[in-house]
Amino acid sequence: MPELAFNSTVTLWRLAADHGGVIRSLLQQGDWTFGTAITHVLGQPGDEQWRFAVVHGTFAIDHLDMQRLAGTSGFEQWQRG
Questions:
Q1: Could you say which of 4, 9, 47, 67 has the lowest number of CB atoms within 10 Å?
Q2: Are 5 and 34 in contact (CB under 8 A)?
Q3: For the whole model, what pTM was predicted?
Q4: How far is residue 3's CA from residue 50's CA, in Å, rounded to a whole number?
Q5: Are strands 9-17 and 52-56 parallel, antiparallel or unpaired?
């Protein structure tokens, strides 16, 4: 996976049922950076975090990787601005 800065632009996807009850990946609207996406996902209830993925190019980052990255000094520095 390429090195991804927390201010890099990403897309955020969430697994959810569509109108027909089929589970699909739905694009979450908004201007997401890697850091804001991590903050958003980790702000969700613990039993909902698995539904999210951050996509950058051909790489997808799941909630477990986001949890690990949120515990790094680099993420803490990004949060402080």
A1: 47
A2: yes
A3: 0.87
A4: 23
A5: antiparallel
C-alpha dihedral (49, 51, 56, 59), degrees to nearest 10: 110
**Six-digit token string for 29:** 């609207």
Of the candidates 72, 69, 57, 66, the residue with the CA atom closest to the CA atom of residue 10: 57
Q: Which two tokens stand for residue 50?
A: 């698995």
What number of H helices and E strands is found in the chain?
A: 3, 5
Structure-token match 């027909």, residue found: 20
Chain length of the chain? 81
Q: Which residues contact 42 (CB under 8 A, 6 or more apart)?
A: 49, 66, 67, 70
Q: Which phi and psi (to 5°) does residue 43 adopt? A: -85, -5
Q: Are strands 9-17 and 23-27 parallel, antiparallel or unpaired?
A: antiparallel
